């Protein structure tokens, strides 16, 4: 939940961050094979890796975040769209955090799933509360029988 809250708040705050010109210095697709826990086999996830360079107050920084909420996907075309949008050498606007210039993003605001982890955490919290309330009652009833 805390990761979701933090990413969601940063995504919203990034809309007001100052922006500076920068340049994409690396753009590629990374793939990673993962073994499935059930059913055997493996799956591959793809992530666009975009590194850009920008300067604030005479200091050069490298950023890798395209947007808050971006994540790896099982569909390589999603990652390809990002690398096509941000090819090496492209001039970009980097939005940087005012009090921490090394934190930046190319697409400010909420894109993708910034609130996903918050909602996922709330679902698990709800399940835990329900089990915590009803589990002792079910155990006591089973002991009586």
Can you give a write-up of this model?
The protein contains three helices and seven strands. The chain has 145 residues and is α+β, with helices and mostly antiparallel strands. It has two domains: 13-113, OB fold (Dihydrolipoamide Acetyltransferase, E2P); 115-145. A hairpin with a 2-residue loop joins β5 and β6. α1 packs antiparallel against α3. The protein is flat. The two termini are 39 Å apart.
Architecture per CATH nomenclature, i.e. the level-2 architecture of the largest domain: Beta Barrel
The whole-angstrom Rg is 21 Å
What general outline do the C-alpha atoms trace? flat
Helix content: 25-40%
* Poorly predicted runs of 5 or more residues: none
Describe the biggest sheet?
A: 5 strands, antiparallel
Strand residue percentage: 35-45%
Class from secondary-structure proportions:
alpha+beta
Distance between the termini: 39 Å
Using the coordinates above, name the CATH class of the largest domain: Mainly Beta
Task: Report the strand count.
Answer: 7
């Amino acid at each position: 939940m805390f990761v979701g809250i933090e990413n969601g708040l940063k995504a919203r705050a990034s809309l007001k961050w100052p922006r500076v010109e920068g340049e994409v210095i690396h753009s590629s697709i990374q793939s990673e094979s993962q073994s499935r826990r059930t059913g055997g086999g493996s799956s591959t996830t793809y992530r666009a890796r975009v590194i850009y360079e920008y300067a604030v107050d005479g200091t050069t920084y490298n950023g890798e975040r395209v947007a808050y909420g971006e994540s790896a996907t099982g569909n390589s075309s999603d990652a390809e769209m990002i690398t096509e949008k941000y090819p090496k050498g492209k001039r970009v606007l980097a939005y940087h955090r005012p009090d921490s210039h090394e934190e930046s993003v190319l697409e400010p605001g909420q894109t993708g799933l910034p609130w996903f982890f918050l909602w996922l955490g709330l679902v698990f919290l709800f399940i835990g509360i329900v089990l915590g309330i009803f589990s002792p009652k079910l155990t006591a009833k089973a002991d009586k029988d």
